[in-house]
Specification:
about 190 residues, alpha/beta, Nucleotidyltransferase, domain 5, about 45% helix, about 20% strand
């Protein structure tokens, strides 16, 4: 009798104060499965405090419904508008607090690292990221949910980052996307 491999669930979050994206993937061995993705629209809420409350409630609800093992969240990047950065940081913090209140580990990834992990190009567009995810999951993704596909990309990046570290170890001279591709040829589709 063969032992069944447990599925790990990763919640990816693309924080925002107007639109927050989320995506859940399941990982069993080397296989990735799209579980759910969507957006939380916040632009009609009258105050920043109500937006933060809604983020906490929605992320908490997703955690209750899907019981993710880990959360990967897009980190802030430097911006010119300090007030926007402050608000985005609060949104990110509230999403993290929802995970921490349920003792879920969290890892942050810079946008360039996420894009690099999924497309091979740290300057890829949202459409290019969505296109690569469609191929990875072998299914069409809704274009109106580009913030959600960004969240899925964060979850995939988290899986790939952890997998690459485990495969290459500390003594390997290979690094980055090319190392991942060469060590995971069974997971990369060729067209």
């Amino acid at each position: 009798m063969e032992a069944k491999i447990a599925e790990k669930i990763i919640l990816g979050v693309d924080p925002g104060t107007r639109v927050l994206g989320y995506g859940l993937i399941g990982v069993t061995g080397n296989q990735l499965r799209l579980i759910q993705y969507g957006v939380l629209r916040l632009e009609k809420l009258p105050s920043h405090e109500l937006k933060l409350k809604r983020i906490f409630e929605r992320i908490s609800g997703i955690i209750e419904d899907y019981l993710p093992d880990e959360m990967a969240i897009e980190a802030q990047f430097y911006g010119v508008n300090v007030q926007s950065m402050l608000k985005l940081g609060r949104a990110q913090g509230v999403a993290m607090a929802a995970a921490l209140s349920r003792e879920i580990s969290i890892v942050e990834y810079l946008p360039k690292k996420v894009k690099q992990s999924v497309t091979g190009n740290g300057n890829a567009t949202k459409d290019q990221v969505a296109y690569m995810l469609e191929h990875l999951f072998s299914q069409k993704l809704e274009k109106q949910f580009l913030d959600a596909t960004d969240a899925l990309a964060v979850a995939v990046c988290h899986h790939m980052h952890g997998k690459t570290k485990a495969l290459t170890g500390n003594n390997s001279k290979k690094k980055g996307w090319s190392a991942f591709v060469s060590e995971n040829s069974d997971r990369v589709k060729k067209s």
